[in-house]
Amino acid sequence: MRAQFVLSEIGVGLRRNLTMTFAVIVSVALSLALFGGALLMREQVSVMKDYWYDKVNVSIFLCNKNDAATAPQCAKGSVTSQQRQQIEADLKKMDLVETVHHETADEAYKHYKERYGDTPLAATITPDQMPESFRVKLEDPEKYKVVATAFAGRDGVESVQDQRNILQNLFDLMNGMNIAALCVMALMLIIALMLIVNTVRVSAFSRRRETGIMRLVGASSFYIQMPFIMEAAFAGLIGGVVACAMLLAGRYFLIDNGLALADKMELVNFIGWDAVLAKLPLVLAIGLLMPAVAAFVALRKYLRV
């Protein structure tokens, strides 16, 4: 009987405040969708870092005859055979170095033509203008500075470059987008909480006669508050379900179909469906508990005798 009464009161409350309930659902759905999207964005950045950092190299470019006029460190001319052998030997002695590959000027020219052969500039480049280099793969890419410190400024070395810097701008952009999404999510969350509190108070005010009678017959405060708390929880749960649907639709239309980024950006290792599905229980739990807690806190003061 009590359960039936509580459920009937929930239905009455939702019908009386249909517009505000709808606003709560929309605001909760948007804030939770942004929250879930921010979590997925952070995981995507982490996956991309793990994937690309494992593949990037440290490049040690050696001096050639054309660098003497433009690079002060190459003022003594092209790298000598002895300097090249010494650099390679020192690299292989380092514990943090996994592999060392020597790329000749001819190989560098071939790779350049494969990438930029259709551009006007490529027609003016000759093999002797391309620098030879050592491509160094580190066991821990974060220790790039150890190699840079050891070889930068050395005789025969034109420059030491970490290929991670090429990717860092992309990761910084994605992290910035993630922070922006979290800021918008926080704003939407505040709006949702304010709507929940106002909706609960309006609902309680419209039923003040019923709650007054319940107090007179000895009903506990928790029993009086339960319909209002469950109304807020129900609206939040619907918002959570909508947010989950938005996350699933976003993964489907952005990566698999629609924009089909997985096909257009084959070099990017996108997160899978398992990562999205793993976030849905958390989104649903927050959607259920957040409005319930907000309603409980608001009602403790409003319904206090």
Describe this structure in words.
The protein has 305 residues and is of the alpha+beta class. 68% of the residues lie in helices and 8% in strands. It has 10 helices and 4 strands; from the N terminus they run H-H-E-H-E-H-E-H-E-H-H-H-H-H. It has a 4-stranded antiparallel beta sheet. The longest helix has 43 residues, at 164-206. The two termini are 25 Å apart. The model has no long low-confidence stretch (mean pLDDT 79).
Features:
elongated, 10 helices, alpha+beta, 4 strands, four-stranded antiparallel β-sheet
Helices, strands, pairings?
Elements: H1 2-16, H2 18-53, E1 58-62, H3 81-93, E2 97-103, H4 105-116, E3 133-138, H5 144-151, E4 157-162, H6 164-206, H7 208-216, H8 221-256, H9 261-264, H10 273-302
Antiparallel strand pairs: 1-3, 1-4, 2-3
Q: Characterize the largest beta sheet: strand count, sense, and whether it forms a barrel.
A: 4 strands, antiparallel
Helix and strand content put the structural class at alpha+beta
- Compressed to H and E, one letter per element, the order equals HHEHEHEHEHHHHH
What's the total helix number?
10
- Percentage of β-strand residues: 5-15%
Quick one: how many beta strands? Answer: 4
Q: Give the terminus-to-terminus CA distance.
A: 25 Å
Radius of gyration, CA atoms, in whole angstroms = 31 Å
- Poorly predicted runs of 5 or more residues: none
Report helical residue fraction: 55-70%
Strand numbers in spatial order across the main sheet: 2-3-1-4
